Request: fold
Amino acid sequence: MNKSKIFFITFLFLIFYTRAVCQIEKYVIDNTQEIKSSDINDTSFADLQQLGQAIDDKRIVMLGEFHHGDGETFKLKSRIVRFLHERKGFDVIVFESDFFTLNETFNLFKKGDISYDSLVFLSIYPVWTQCLQTHTLFRYLAETSLGLHGNEIILSGMDNRLYSAYSLKNIASKIDSFLRLMQVSFVNTPEYDFFRSKITYAWKGDDPNLLDSLIKILPKIIDQVNSRKSLAFICKTDIDFYIHVFNGLLYNYKRLLYYHSDDFKLHKKEYPLNDFQMAENLKWLANNKYANKKIIVWAHNGHIEPQLEDSSYMDHKSMGYYLSKDTLLFKQTYTLGVTCFEGSAKLFGRKLEKSTKIKKNSIESWMHTKNFDFGFVNLKNLEFPQIKPFYMRTYIHSDYEQDWTKIYDGVLYIKRAKPCISKSIITK
Reply:
């Protein structure tokens, strides 16, 4: 091939390449809609109609966040929760929090055994309960339980790490009661006595031999429970719930053991299946326990995004990736990433983190041209191919270049992130 042909082909490629960049940039600028308020008490909702139309008849909405300590994100998400509840019929919210505890304590609340504040404080992670900017959300959720604002919003969780104080205090006895009710023979062995005494102690993660022992025991328990499913008189939902709890324990112990491995010490990568059981928990909630309900998922961007098969910016597969393998459920899902142009955030108990300077070829720079404090753009079903990857901020100081139109259905924009104000949901 002579030089003139090479030059001509290169020239055509650059034209096509530049056109693709301009197409997505122009689309984002032209189609970014202003969200006028992040106040949960602003119920005019006219500024959220485009978001509602984009979501259409989906029954799962994933609400991301770029930092677990940005109060502006929490305020905006709270208002969207109210909009989705009152205008779109969503009545379950699944937090990136303790699967075991949130299912258990919501039942206790419904029986009148604990207050709503206790339900929230015992079950949902402190990054949200200790942030003043979420308190209006929890007040709103509590009001729905009193018959205000339409149907009650059910609280649930999907995280398999079981970090709550309720889990530490109650999971061993709850598991024991369940296994004895199921008449599982394993409970009559010394091996089970050892397991029961070490369930919560192992969560410290400092004893690899103990973790290894528990990892070998849990499959025996799961197999025996599964073998008695058809014989038991216990509700199938309760049996399935505890099987998910056992699998959550198993993956949690594997994660903790992985942190002792040479692979982790060398590469410092996350446990590769950290999000797998989270996806299994969410799929069970959506396909079984709440099969006829519309669900909001409240979690970090890094968990909800489906990811591309060849994505290299994350060192492990996300919950959204595993969820996307359930094609029927994934077709019913709308995934909303959240990003900011500037500002700072503060995770509960940690130092302030400031945003880095925004990159030129980024969705944040394009949305910022509209000069909105808050905005939304729908990226679903674009009519042109996206060739050139562009930047998006998925963490407050981390920008990655990908074709984000193939990852997020829509993006929520916040002009300036602001740190959480530390304040407990329960005050003395």
